[in-house]
Amino acid sequence: MFLKEKRSVFIFIFILIISLIFTVDLLLNKGQPATFDGPTHLTNIAQFYKAMKEGEWKPTWSDGFANYGMPIPIIAQQTTSYMGAWLNFALHNVIFSYNVVVLIGAFFSLIFFYLFLRLHTNVRGAFLGTFLFNVAPYRILNIYIRGAIPEFFAGVFFPLILIALYKWIKEEKKYAPFLFAAAVGGLLLTHPFMLVIYAFFIVPYAGLLIYKKKNIPPKLGILGIFGVLGIGSVGYYLIPLFLELKYFYYGTGNRFLPDQYLRLQNYIAPAWPYFYRDDIMTRGHFIHFGLIESVIFALSIILLAVALLKKRFINNIILITIPIGLITIFMTSQFAIPLYKHISMLGKIQHPWRMMSMFIYISPILLAIYSKNWNRWLVCLFIIIIAVIRFPQLYGKNYQFVPESTYFFTKENLHGEVLNIIWTGPTQNYPVKVNKPEIIAGKGIIDNSEIHNSWRTYEIRASEKIRMVDYTFYFPGWKVYIDGVPTTIEFQDMNYRGVITYYVPEGKHMVLVKFEDTRVRMLSNAVSILSLLAFGVLALVEKRYKVLGKMIKPKASSK
Fold this sequence. Notes:
Layout: H1 8-28, H2 38-53, H3 72-75, H4 78-91, H5 94-118, H6 123-134, H7 137-146, H8 149-153, H9 158-169, H10 176-190, H11 194-210, H12 216-233, H13 235-243, H14 265-268, H15 291-309, H16 316-331, H17 337-342, H18 344-347, H19 356-359, H20 362-370, H21 376-390, E1 437-441, E2 444-451, E3 455-462, E4 466-473, E5 478-482, E6 485-487, E7 499-504, E8 507-515, H22 519-545, H23 547-552
Antiparallel strand pairs: 1-4, 2-3, 3-8, 4-7, 5-6, 5-8
């Protein structure tokens, strides 16, 4: 649809320009701005790059993370980490690679949101709604204050899911189930829990499309099959994420923070505090919806009420968008705290204000619908007003110039101590060790060490039975082989808490210490491979036999 429009080139260029405007402060500065999570995601990119450079195209271990290494690639958001690592092969600059990922996320989230809006309004309305969405305060906050690049990048896949639903349920486009599966898989790889937040819109939207339509059971059945394939294709990540999270402090309890709800001032205050409470290094971490968006939402409620009273025509998308907005506001308030506490999946969101990731779509959608009949001068005036208010906020604070090596070795766990392994202590309290292997009991010599990200080999000459330490935090999957034979690993000695230790008998031996896939990870990899194979087979079958159309075609009634 986008490429068929006469003004598609203009819209494409316009969206590219406003994406560049959104990221220009990052791109023009060589350092990293002070953000809460930015250094963590920069380090993820560096650690993935390091592992991939050594031939580990599916990293599972980060040897330079948290002093003695952590299985961060198993739990870290995949899309932005892999994308940043791949870009770094070409750009050779971790910060610039990170910034390009932000630019890519900004551009495609706008392109796909524009395409979604075009399903429900004209070019002018979609144009204006996309412009407002681009500079939503929470989007700005996610990049320039929080540094939450995975949550920001998730905005690429949410409108794609909505487009796929529309194209399948309403227009019966045969590519739509495949797009749906790819979008669901992409969202889960980018930020799994964002699917829970976006479900507040996805489910009612699907219901809207289904209303008064024919052949819904087969359509939903096919969509369900492709949804399962989309989830299964990323099983290599999702299954270990949920099953092995129990080995981290994070997995031992509910991490919901009940005091992180929003108040009235978060919805009406136009302030952008440079300093806020204890935020000194970073810009003020004040969550707000935006005064422009609040006014649009309030006026939309009034217009809806008037239309209902006078029984005027109401666009169906408005009928679900306003209630979803009200529900989202409720979910950011203190009144929703019991729901977060008693519904486990909701509690994993951690911060009630994270529901703003859903709310930032509400006012742009409403504006896009209501502005479709505006003249071009009013649209231009509104764009100027938005630009004057929001463009000055597109800046980072306290840019720092740090050596690249900072991202390839960290003493602390940048994800926080809640993501330390449960049998370890604070990683910064362990002494930094230049050499991985060390003899801690007995006499012997270590020769011909070969150290890599997730494996190492040593030649040991022991004059008696010796005890060895490998300064690596143990996690299921680490194995030690002596002359090719597996040996027992100990990791609960309080003098070497959580660190790999093992015994080597007297004599000359070759030792291999290697991080391997557990049964859970091997099963997860198999699920992904089988799902992708099934996905490919379905694509080939559909191309040749056109089975999807036949499955949803109404059966002729027999007389």
